[in-house]
Amino acid sequence: MRFFESYIASCKPTDTRESQLLDQLQQVLQNVNAEQIAEKMQRNLYFAVDDLELDGLTGKWHTVVDSPSVHGERCVVSYLEKIEESRFSALFTLTQYSRHNEDVRIMHGSGRKTGPDPGSIFFLTGHPADPCPYFPVKSSPLNQQGQYEYLILTQALKHPTMVLARDIWEFETKYGNEVRDYLNRYGYINPITSLNSPLLWVNNTRCIQANDYFADLDEVV
């Protein structure tokens, strides 16, 4: 229950559509069985989440699955940096580069961890269509470099949802079927709140061919 109350407090809707999604969450919290409903929703979201290693989240990410009804950008590359950490809290900066029409778009977001429990990590992308934070619901195991190789991020009603990957080709060959199965099985592909706008598997071939400078940055600029 506290999770959803905290989540709603983190959202800043800017239009009617976004307000409607928050209204749905408010209705859940006002239900006479709100505690049980919220607990069930949270279990449904987080059953696959372990206690994530924060250092394994940092670095460069490619968006390989996205919600096109919310995000119109392509060739999205994100750089996540941890700037502060204590026992049960942490702060991150998030810089996202993308193509929008013929322009390069740069957005600045943030991340935070509050508390020891799974589901306590939130990321704000800085995208104008993302007034609410994302949180991880599934990840790959850590690789030999101590990094996660993919990360599934979603919002409280399973829409919008994104999948981030370290390496585009390795993700498809090593994890593509696993992620497709997960998204289909647990209702992320076309949830009710997506308004019949399913997830999109990004065609990253043209992004690699474009050779955008921001895909090869060693550090956030």
Automatic annotation (TrEMBL):
Top-level division of the source organism's lineage: Eukaryota
Organism listed in the record: Ditylenchus destructor
Protein's UniProt name: CBR-LPR-1 protein
Residue stretches making up the Lipocalin domain: 51-208
